[in-house]
Design brief:
The complex is a heterodimer of chains A (296) and B (286).
Chain A: H1 5-36, H2 41-67, H3 76-93, H4 95-106, H5 110-114, H6 120-149, H7 161-188, H8 196-207, H9 219-225, H10 229-242, H11 255-286
Helix pairs in contact in A: 1-6, 2-3, 2-6, 3-6, 3-7, 3-8, 3-10, 4-6, 4-7, 6-7, 7-10, 7-11, 10-11
Chain B: H1 6-10, H2 13-33, H3 41-64, H4 68-92, H5 94-101, H6 104-109, H7 114-144, H8 155-179, H9 186-201, H10 213-219, H11 223-235, H12 246-278
Helix pairs in contact in B: 2-7, 3-4, 3-7, 4-7, 4-8, 4-9, 7-8, 8-11, 8-12, 11-12
Classes of the chains: A mainly alpha (296), B mainly alpha (286).
């Protein structure tokens, strides 16, 4: 008896969904294991918070050297919240290309990932998920210590949680898109593939006003800053945590408009990232760079 | 490939050993001094990257309304951090990296001591990073219009502070390099973990005294801390309250330099033997 076309189609969709879930789950678990199984969980947690904590402490000291020890007015909260939120960017934007490079160069497994029936972009997204979790943990601990011990002016009862989580989700989508774009570039770069994500993160740290208001940037650099979703994302995170007054010096006053611009720039970034990744992926396959090793 | 001449071979074993050692040192320094500069992308990765970080911290001081000399303080700190990055990734992590890529066995089979190889890495890394640091300092100072008040009489002390802190720092790197022979995958995590705290502890972006006496006293064990503080005292006189007078700091740095170099030689000999006994010298991806 012939199987109806609709039943075949539904079956294919189910298989595809199941495969997508398997890919996501396996990639997430793989990333979690490769990142954390070199030590015990307590040491790993310590490892996760030391870097963002000391980065924030440097800023605290810089502020106190000029304004006096214990001062927490002006842009004090701005510095610490931006520094804590930057963990997401460091973990994801630099992390996805690193995962691709490690799979290709150190473990020589990338070619096997390519020959599985799973979708590579989904695999990369799965690799980003544990990093999001880890970054969220670092963010909460860094900010928590900032609030409890360093006087960061965040009142947990007055935080705009809907804005915080909405901007966090959209921001993470944008950051992941950027990580995927860089992973594509890492596949085709002949030299400097390891340093490239750090270079991009460093440039974004400066341009997006992570630790200072973008108004102190030269005007041409401020225009570049306003084209980036990260600028709006960090601004919204700060507004949600510290109150809208923190955005008084930001070129866009209305919080709704800032959220709209975050969404718009994120959508554009996703489009650019997908196209760029496809091009890089094709180039890498064509040039035989999927199983190339550069450092071994 | 360079070999010893017949005259050199006829000399005493000690002389042959020292000559071979120097040749090894120069041979290992060569890729850092010459080969690494063949590709111009170092300008981007090793000059532009630290400059971006320096610019970010300079803008923070600008946003807080700090005097311009504080931006100079950041530029000096950022420039010196290039040495720390070099020590960490190209010195401390190097033997681990060589093991992963299969070169460590070749080093150990060579007739020269591993210490000469480390000395060559340090020498090459120091000179190559010095070139990058000069470019970073010049560009950073030009970008932010920072001027320095260095007097001629202070120049010898600045040079001594700089040299002793570098010798101590590379000695520390050599100690770490030998220690890492006992570790595997956790090496990169350790490297990542200690990179940022050292920027904090050494007062790279703030005067060392701001850390408080206990933290600054502990941080003084890292040669970069006192070296940076001494140089800052001499090029920005009177800008901030000093931690220890520059002359004293140079003296402590000289002691630290000797201690770290002797410590590195001892650690390398001991850990190399231990690693051989435990069979860790060719262990990969564990």
């Amino acid at each position: 008896m012939a199987t109806p076309i609709s039943a075949l189609s539904a079956g294919r969709t189910r298989i595809s969904q199941s495969r997508a879930w398997q890919t996501l789950r396996a990639a997430t678990w793989l990333e979690w294991e490769t990142r954390g199984n070199w030590t015990n969980p307590a040491l790993y947690l310590l490892y996760l918070i030391i870097r963002p904590m000391t980065a924030s402490l440097v800023l605290v000291l810089m502020f106190w050297v000029i304004k006096g020890v214990g001062a927490h007015d002006g842009i004090y909260g701005f510095l610490i919240t931006g520094s804590a939120a930057w963990t997401f960017v460091e973990q994801i934007i630099a992390g996805i290309p690193q995962a691709v490079l490690a799979d290709r160069e150190e473990y020589a497994m990338l070619k096997y990932v390519y020959i599985t029936p799973s979708h590579f972009l989904l695999f990369l997204t799965g690799r980003a998920l544990p990093r999001m979790l880890v970054a969220f943990f670092s963010f909460v601990v860094t900010l928590g210590i900032g609030i409890a011990l360093l006087g960061v002016p965040v009142n947990l009862l007055q935080v705009n949680y809907p804005l915080f989580f909405a901007s966090l989700i959209v921001g993470l989508v944008g950051v992941t898109a950027l990580g995927i774009l860089l992973a594509g570039l890492a596949l085709v770069l002949k030299r400097g593939a390891y340093q490239m994500p750090q270079a991009v993160t460093g440039a974004l740290y400066l341009i997006s006003g992570a630790i200072f208001p973008i108004t102190v940037l030269p005007s041409w650099l401020r225009d570049v800053s306003l084209a980036l979703p990260l600028t709006y994302w960090l601004e919204l995170m700060r507004r949600a945590l510290l109150g809208s007054h923190i955005g008084e010096s930001f070129p866009v006053a209305e919080t709704g408009a800032v959220f709209g611009l975050l969404t718009l720039t994120t959508v554009v970034l996703i489009g650019v990232a997908l196209v760029a990744f496809r091009i890089c992926d094709f180039q890498a396959r064509e040039r035989g760079q999927i199983d190339r090793t550069t450092g071994y | 490939m360079a070999t010893l001449s017949p005259d050199a071979r006829a000399a005493s074993p000690q002389v042959v050993g020292v000559r071979l050692g120097f040749m090894t040192m120069l041979g290992r320094a060569y890729p850092r001094l010459v080969a690494a500069n063949r590709e111009p992308d170092w300008i981007f990765y090793e000059v532009a990257l630290p400059l971006l970080q320096i610019c970010a911290f300079a803008f923070v001081y600008k946003a807080i309304g700090a005097p311009k000399q504080y931006i100079g303080l950041v530029i000096l700190g950022g420039g010196m951090m290039a040495f720390w990055a070099n020590v960490l990734w190209s010195m401390a992590g190097q033997l681990h990296w060589e093991r992963q890529s299969g070169n460590l066995e070749l080093y150990l089979m060579a007739p020269s001591s591993l210490l000469w190889i480390l000395a060559g890495m340090a020498f090459g890394g120091m000179l190559a990073t010095a070139i990058r640091t000069v470019v970073i300092l010049a560009l950073g100072s030009l970008l932010f219009g920072v001027s320095y008040a260095l007097t001629l009489s202070a120049v010898p002390l600045v040079i001594l502070a700089f040299l002793f802190s570098l010798i101590g720092l590379y000695g520390l790197g050599s100690m770490l390099a030998s220690l890492y022979l006992l570790y595997n995958r956790e090496v990169w995590a350790i490297q990542e973990v200690i990179q940022e705290p050292v920027a904090f502890l050494t007062g790279s972006y703030v005067p060392v005294r701001a850390l408080g006496p206990f933290v600054a006293g502990f941080a003084a064990l890292i040669p970069l801390t006192l070296g940076l503080d001494a140089v800052r005292q001499l090029v920005f006189p009177g800008l901030f309250r000093i931690f220890i007078p520059a002359g004293w700091e140079v003296g402590i740095l000289a002691v630290l330099a000797v201690l770290f170099c002797v410590g590195a030689a001892w650690a390398l000999t001991y850990i190399e033997r231990l690693a051989k006994v435990q069979g860790r010298l060719s262990l990969k991806w564990q």
